[in-house]
């Protein structure tokens, strides 16, 4: 035969005065027979239910007729002093029917600042009590930490860091900055690989590139290094090789990246050419030059020389037609060395 049991709840009624002072009544047992539900009701609209020991407390609150509705709080107790009070409380319809998550040391939970707010439509606010979007985050003034940080520790290849899908005509991501100094968005890649990949068409009002030249990846038929002058390889269609011979009309450009001058933009990222050298077709680039015959000075036209992969000053303008690499921007008095050149193939 099954033994009948009863549910017993011992409660301590507390009269809430809106401050740290409370009046405690007599403890009493609330008993319900098996299958029944024990119900606790406050004696008046201002009474609360508090379960407390020497180090922690849990409180249930109800404020009929006020804009702050029911709440549940958990806090620490040290020598009768409460602190670190976490609360979940509901505001009445006068405040839009929101659910608030607050934290602080004020005995009155509604006086502690909200850390998260959920409104009746499902909008979530962090740092704001009036979310204007489905997820509204506001970082307080003077805070230097990041507003959002997502750390992906997955080990699977091809795992997506953040996914945003847009099924309407609006933007999947819109970034607006009021700063006159900092960028609206910053993407930084540590190590090898692309920092940003756009699969589709990208449109910008102004594209500012911090590099110095416009280059394209070309397959080459022999090893090359930055600064070398390259020419079209007649034996390997579509490929380049080290330029040979003075006034070579097959001159094609200069291997970008010499003297630590970064490339500005790189074209030709085609299948099979991902690791091909970037060859400057326009812009500033450091070029290996030979000044054994004539010194090179700013403004001089440059063409190929008899020293493979090196440029020289144009002295025969008739022969230079179709073989001009560009214009010198620095000097080289004698021997071989690097010259900053403005690549203008012609």
Please sum up the structure shown.
With 346 residues, the chain is mostly beta strands. Helices cover 0% and strands 36% of the residues.
Low-confidence stretches: 1-25, 37-46
Largest sheet, in brief, is: 10 strands, mixed
pLDDT average, as an integer?
82
The amount of beta strand, in percent, is 35-45%
Structural class: mainly beta
Q: What is the strand tally?
A: 22
How is the largest sheet built, in terms of strand order? 3-2-5-6-7-8-9-10-11-12
Radius of gyration: 37 Å
What's the helix count? 0
First-residue to last-residue Cα separation: 106 Å
Number of domains: 2
Helix coverage percent? under 10%
Order of helices and strands: EEEEEEEEEEEEEEEEEEEEEE
Name the overall outline.
rod-shaped
Description of the molecule:
The protein is mainly β and 346 residues long. It folds into 2 domains: 6-137, no CATH class; 213-344, Head decoration protein D (Virus Head Decoration Protein, Chain: A, Beta Barrel). Helices cover 0% and strands 36% of the residues. It contains no helices and 22 strands. It has strands at 6-11, 13-16, 22-24, 28-33, 47-52, 56-61, 68-78, 81-91, 99-104, 114-118, 124-126, 135-137, 213-217, 229-232, 240-242, 251-255, 265-267, 278-290, 301-304, 311-313, 324-328, 336-344. Strands 3-2-5-6-7-8-9-10-11-12 form a 10-stranded mixed beta sheet, with no helix packed on it. A hairpin with a 5-residue loop joins strand 10 (114-118) and strand 11. The N and C termini lie far apart (106 Å).
